[in-house]
Amino acid sequence: MILLSVEGLSKRFGGLLAVDKASMAVPEGSITGLIGPNGAGKTTLFALASGFLEPSAGRVLFAGEDVTAEPPHRRARRGIARTFQIVQPFQGLTVHENIAVGAYLRHAGRQAALDAARAVAEEVGLAPLLETPAAALTVAGRKRLELARALATAPRLLLLDEVLAGLNPSEVRDILPVLRAIRARGVTILMIEHVMQAVMNLCDHVHVLAQGRMIAEGPPRAVCNDAAVIEAYLGHGAAARMRAEGGAHA
Ligand SMILES: Nc1ncnc2c1ncn2[C@@H]1O[C@H](COP(=O)(O)OP(=O)(O)OP(=O)(O)O)[C@@H](O)[C@H]1O
């Protein structure tokens, strides 16, 4: 089943077409990657999928239903959760309280929200830090908190916007099994990621956005060897130069 699909989605900011007739489908149960150079429109596409921005054209379908006109809280209720690239926890609250904010979407009472938040903290490895003020967390801790806040809304689809950015290689290695376990219990993941080691390790399928357009898709390894993708990242002629260099070393 396709859980999320965007069809011919465009977003114009004044004279800039940040997303240009982009289409993609995210199968339920997958970890799907969205990659592309800086400024390609990836975060804008997330904002369109989650309802934080209205598209200039195109449609967003969730579990087969057209949600294009729905505001973010209605989509959250359906099961779409996103993280933000710039992590902004409630600094004055503890880790536990921050996660509970997400849990209020599904739980009416304070105690039920706190209980759900504790379970999520265990899942993402924040259980020992429940009473820590969010302001005291390291970068890696704040990234886990951002993940936890989204997970606490009990999503069917988790949109992760660079949750690995700023982590060192061992912190990246530590979080990969957490993401795999989230998928294993049935949560579908669409992730924007620049850390290619993680994309290669985690993603079943990858879509590539460049200057607002979808330029390639496929299994991660094939996509990374795609000439159009290499050119989008490294500039015109890069694929041919790399082939030539590869030849020289052979
Ligand atoms: N609210 C906005 N108003 C005007 N322009 C915007 C707005 N949001 C994004 N843009 C522009 O749209 C383009 C796409 O931005 P976006 O943040 O979606 O790219 P991205 O692929 O997520 O980039 P990065 O990898 O650097 O985060 C950029 O040129 C950006 O400056």
TrEMBL record:
It comes from Teichococcus aestuarii. GO terms for biological process: D-alanine transmembrane transport; L-alanine transport; L-isoleucine import across plasma membrane; L-valine import across plasma membrane. This is ABC transporter ATP-binding protein. One of its GO terms (molecular function) is L-valine transmembrane transporter activity. Pfam families: ABC_tran, BCA_ABC_TP_C. Signal peptide: none annotated. InterPro entries: AAA+_ATPase, ABC_AA/LPS_Transport, ABC_transporter-like_ATP-bd, BCA_ABC_TP_C, P-loop_NTPase. Keywords: ATP-binding, Nucleotide-binding, Transport. SMART domains: AAA. The keyword Nucleotidyltransferase does not apply. It comes from the Bacteria.
